[in-house]
Amino acid sequence: SYELTQPPSVSVSPGQTARITCSGDALPKQHAYWYQQKPGQAPVVVISKDSERPSGIPERFSGSSSGTTVTLTISGVQAEDEADYYCQSADRSGTYVVFGGGSKLTVL
Amino acid sequence: EVQLVESGGGLVQPGGSLRLSCTASGFTFNNYWMSWVRQAPGKGLEWVADIKQDGSVKYYVDSVKGRFTISRDNAKTLLYLQMNSLRAEDTAVFYCARSRRSSGWYYFDFWGQGTLVTVSS
Predict the structure, then answer these.
(1) Closest in A31, A45, A98 to B47, CB measured
(2) How far apart are CA B92 and CA A84, in angstroms?
């Protein structure tokens, strides 16, 4: 079955830049989405279609894509950004949905 | 305002059954694919199943095929998940989510708050 691979954890100090990667063979064909999930809450989309920022999401969140890897970048990290981040896409056929394993962002 | 409210979770013994419901409001329900996504305690998100607007197409993750059935009632704006032959590894918070699907992209734009299913003797 298709998988998306993320690092389990990322740590940065406030004001620094955090980068979270997500790798998958079908990413050149299927767009990726990034979700932020805080404890006890439902996930929220922070990046759509690899690099689009939905309305209401701070400008410090950005996304990029290169080949089989997509990257979520958070510039000028704030304490409130501490959360779990998940990439999500679909398999090559577009039929089955898959999430990455999630990356816990810790703000030191 | 889009709202998705899950219900039906609870404690069930291994091998038992449970039916989850999701009440949708604030949008034209029969215009959207709908999905169930689950999250085991302390673990990541896992897509479980989704269903086309008219109920004619359904997809499932391999681990629930033959045990879970997704369905919908467009007149009542309800989404269901019938879960049979439940296992301990099915223990999770189950989220109802509105799905957006097209060629080259698929995502979930609204989520409910989830309902907890615990499978234990």
Answers:
(1) A98
(2) 17
User: Is residue B109 within 8 angstroms of chain A, CB to CB?
Assistant: yes
Ranges of beta strands (E only) in chain A are: 9-12, 18-23, 33-37, 44-47, 61-66, 69-74, 83-90, 97-99, 103-107
> Of the candidates B44, B47, B107, which has its C-beta nearest A33's C-beta?
B107
pLDDT digits (tens, 9 = 90+) for A45-94: 999 999 999 999 999 999 999 999 999 999 999 999 999 999 999 999 98
Contacts of A85 (CB under 8 A, 6+ apart): A6, A20, A34, A35, A36, A37, A46, A72, A102, A103, A105
Q: Is A100 buried (19+), middle (13-18) or exposed (0-12) by CB count in 10 A?
A: buried
Q: Which residues in chain A are contacts of B44 at CB distance < 8 A?
A: 84, 86, 99-102
